[in-house]
Every structure is written in C-alpha cells, then in structure tokens.
Amino acid sequence: MTVPHSLPVERQAFRDAMAGLAAAVNVITTDGPHGRAGFTATAVCSVTDQPPTLLVCINRTASVYESFTGNGTVCVNTLGNGQQALSNAFGGKTPQAQRFEGGCWSQGVTGAPILEGAKLSFDCKITSSTSVGTHDILVCEVLDIRQQNEADVLVYFARRYHELAGTQASA
Ligand SMILES: NC(=O)c1ccc[n+]([C@@H]2O[C@H](COP(=O)([O-])OP(=O)(O)OC[C@H]3O[C@@H](n4cnc5c(N)ncnc54)[C@H](O)[C@@H]3O)[C@@H](O)[C@H]2O)c1
Ligand SMILES: Cc1cc2c(cc1C)N(C[C@H](O)[C@H](O)[C@H](O)COP(=O)(O)O)c1[nH]c(=O)[nH]c(=O)c1N2
C-alpha cells in the first residue's frame, strides 16, 4: 500500500484538532507500596470485553507516573455534573494529599481509591503497558465495576467542561 506523501502535522495543529473530540472526564487513582496518587484523564477508552479491558494514557513526566506503574493498579472514576473542581484539583500542580481532600474515598478489590459520587468506577489491574512518544498506554483489566443509576456526565470539549443531563445508565 502506498501512503500518500504529506507534510508532518504540527503539535499545535494536532492539539487544536483533538480539542474537537469530546471526552468523558475521569479521575484515575492508585494506592499501594508506591503511594496513593491520582490524576485527571480524558484519554481513556474500551479495548475488549473478553477479558473486560480498558486503556488509560499517562504522560511519563507526570508526578504520579511512578506510583501508577509501581502499584500496578488503577481505578477509573468517571465524573458527573458539578465535579469540575475535582477534575481541576487532579489536573496537575496541586499536591497529592490536597487533591484527595475534595472527595470521599473507599477501597475495592485492588485497593485503589474509589470516589464516592463518581458516575462509574472501574477497579483495575494493569496487565501491560506500551510507550508511545511522551505517554504510556496502560492496558487495564477490569476486576470490579460500580455504577450509579443517574448517569449525568461531565464532558471535556473545546477546552472547557460541559454538563450532559442525566439519563438512566442501564436503559
Ligand atoms: N492526553 C493528555 O495527556 C491530555 C488530554 C487532555 C488534556 N491534557 C492536559 O490538559 C491541558 C489543557 O488541555 P486543553 O484541552 O484545555 O488544551 P490543549 O490545547 O493543551 O489540548 C487540546 C487537546 O489536545 C490533546 N492533548 C493535549 N495535550 C496532550 C498531550 N500532551 N498528549 C496528547 N494529547 C494531548 C487533548 O485531547 C486535549 O484535549 C493540556 O495542556 C494537557 O496538559 C492532557
Ligand atoms: C481535562 C484534563 C484532561 C487530562 C489532563 C488534565 C486535564 C485538566 N491531563 C493532565 C494530568 O491530569 C496532569 O498532568 C496530572 O495531574 C499530573 O500533573 P502533575 O505532574 O502531578 O502536576 C492528562 N494527562 C494524561 O497523562 N493523560 C490524560 O488523558 C490527561 N487528560
């Protein structure tokens, strides 16, 4: 197959285009011997349902990177309407302990913090990872799921938050 010759896509052009891709907002957490940590991520998606697997992309320069790879666990907590403050707290710069002060947390099978009030929580173990450019793709097997009935969702689109009205999650 011949790939058409074209100019390289500039970093800013890529980001401008990606800003047009609406995405759910998630607080990704971990806990274990390498410490409790969390960060905000929109780069999350389903991979396969056999075994139930999702992926999370994490920047290797993030302060939380060693905690996630060291612990080998993640909980993907999907945010709903009115949880922008949590997203901003986990979105960088804020010290780890302070990030967790904005929510109530419990623990599930992996020990990763589960956010009370999250619309969805996927408790996972990391089964593999692949480095691509600045990021690692974490492949995460889902061991447990918690789901709220009222499935309003916080969406990040065009560089700002949008609230999507509630609907029944398991219609
Ligand atoms: N995948 C990511 O790492 C990612 C995604 C969204 C936001 N962010 C962080 O939030 C900040 C604000 O984002 P914004 O949407 O308001 O404006 P922005 O112009 O920085 O980013 C626009 C879009 O480009 C993508 N993007 C941004 N930084 C990226 C990166 N380092 N690697 C891969 N994709 C990236 C995301 O889809 C983002 O929504 C970013 O500068 C970045 O630090 C990172
Ligand atoms: C809306 C939104 C979405 C994302 C982010 C931010 C925000 C505000 N960030 C950035 C990430 O949350 C941030 O780098 C971490 O919190 C680590 O920051 P510190 O290095 O601890 O300051 C982010 N980082 C990442 O590695 N993958 C992702 O998918 C996203 N998505």
Shape: globular
Can you say what the CATH homologous superfamily is? Electron Transport, Fmn-binding Protein, Chain A
How many DSSP helices?
4
Proportion of residues in extended strands: 35-45%
The CATH architecture assignment turns out to be: Roll
Q: What is the arithmetic mean of pLDDT? A: 94
Measure the end-to-end span. Answer: 43 Å
CATH top level class name: Mainly Beta
CATH topology: Pnp Oxidase, Chain A
Please sum up the structure shown.
The protein has 4 helices and 12 strands; from the N terminus they run αβββββαβααββββββ. It is an alpha+beta fold and 171 residues long.
SSE map:
Blueprint: H1 11-18, E1 23-24, E2 26-30, E3 37-41, E4 44-49, E5 52-59, H2 65-71, E6 73-78, H3 84-89, H4 96-100, E7 105-107, E8 113-115, E9 120-132, E10 135-147, E11 153-157, E12 160-164
Antiparallel strand pairs: 1-11, 2-3, 2-6, 4-5, 5-10, 6-9, 7-8, 9-10, 11-12
The ligand Cc1cc2c(cc1C)N(C[C@H](O)[C@H](O)[C@H](O)COP(=O)(O)O)c1[nH]c(=O)[nH]c(=O)c1N2 binds next to strand 3 and strand 5.
